[in-house]
Amino acid sequence: MTLSSENPAYRSAVKKFFRRMLPLVVFMLVINQMDRTNVGFVQTHFKTDLGIGAAAFGLGAGLFFVGYAIFEVPSNMLLERFGARVWLTRIMITWGVVVAATAFTSNATTFYLLRFLLGVAEAGFFPGVIYYFTKWLPNAERGRATAIFLGGSASAYIVTGPISGALLEMHGLGGIAGWKWMFLLEGGFSVVIGIVAGFFLVSRVKDAKWLTDEEKSALSAAIERDEAVRSDKKTASVPRWKLVTNPQVLLLCWLFFAMSLTGYAITFWLPSIVKKIPDTSDFMVGLLSAIPWICAIVAMYTLAWYTDRTGKRRPWVAVGLVLGAAGTFLATVGPPWFALVALCLGATGFKCAASAFWPLAQHSLDLKIAAAGIALINSLGNLGGFVGPTVVGAVEESTGSTAGGLYALSIVSVLAAGTVFLVRARHVPARSRVTAPVVQ
């Protein structure tokens, strides 16, 4: 007979993954995003201490993504070979070393070099985890997992502000500038957590000692069914490079580029916008900068719960992009307090778009190019993180305002929203359709 209810062993295995592995990779992502974006809180300090102006700062902040893009695909291919436990922890330890070294920045040139090296060190972490999910969860569970994971990046923005602000207040302790304390302590913490994570991460379902044999069998069977949907026999003899460069993959790259373009512009320039609010200290700027990301987390989790049950993700990617564009535009038309409220809408829109985008992208890719395709989308898409801050920095340098740059980014987001429906997605079963196998 065919059981109509879900297999208890399958559900138990999924819950154990969510309890044991997901919190660890989320915590790693929180630290990752903190180490990537903490530079946004030292713009004024760099200008005062090192003479690094807005244009040079924007270029340096964006150079991270150049190194990231170059080494992203090779890194994800190596993760596929060595496994998540070895490769993700290696990435974390090396990026921690580079962050700590940023404390020794002495001029614009060293700032450019260290930001580029940070991108090289971090390359492969985010797409590596996204690929890791495909080896542990079928499509019907990945929406929630991706939203929770992306919630880690939003949570990072919540804690980065207060933590970085507090560390900046250590200015003068031991004769060391506050921004140097920030990089030294946050980078050192990453190295420690990277070493610890190596003892807990499990790369494959069959290696999980905390799963019973029945749970392993049920979860593996669900993943195999999902992979069967994503595997196309017609492409078995087609070279990987042709599959990776087909128009659908390039369309996904474009969509993520548009999200990154404005999303990272908000991330890097939000503290400087908040700082225009009268009588705000470094610590207060950090607290206020956390508000947009709190809004984003609540919205992301709600949307993920809905899309996992309906399988409808494309419309919500478009809606998120439009909301993000609206928030970015409105941030330019009012006083600093109004700009902060508008950026709450902008951050919510772009984070919701990303949380719906990644499960859509995962399920759209041929199984043969899952690792390389995810890495390519993330690497080319993240170049938006180079273009966005660089454009906004250049515009502010020449006009004294970020408004012109934010206008342009809003237009790009609206254009991207119009192209979402060109993505050809495979049929996405809702979570409720994951049933137990046939029992004779």
What would you note in describing this structure?
- It is found in: Cell membrane.
- GO terms for molecular function: transmembrane transporter activity.
- Pfam families: MFS_1.
- It is a multi-pass membrane protein.
- Residues 21-428 form the Major facilitator superfamily (MFS) profile domain.
- The protein is mainly α and 440 residues long.
- The chain has a single domain, classed as MFS general substrate transporter like domains (Growth Hormone, Chain: A), CATH 1.20.1250.20.
- It has helices at residues 8-20, 22-37, 43-50, 54-82, 84-101, 108-122, 125-134, 139-168, 178-197, 213-230, 240-244, 247-274, 282-289, 291-310, 314-330, 336-364, 370-381, 384-399, 403-419.
- The longest helix is centred in the middle third of the chain and has 30 residues, at 139-168.
- It starts with 7 loop residues before the first helix and ends in a 21-residue tail after the last helix.
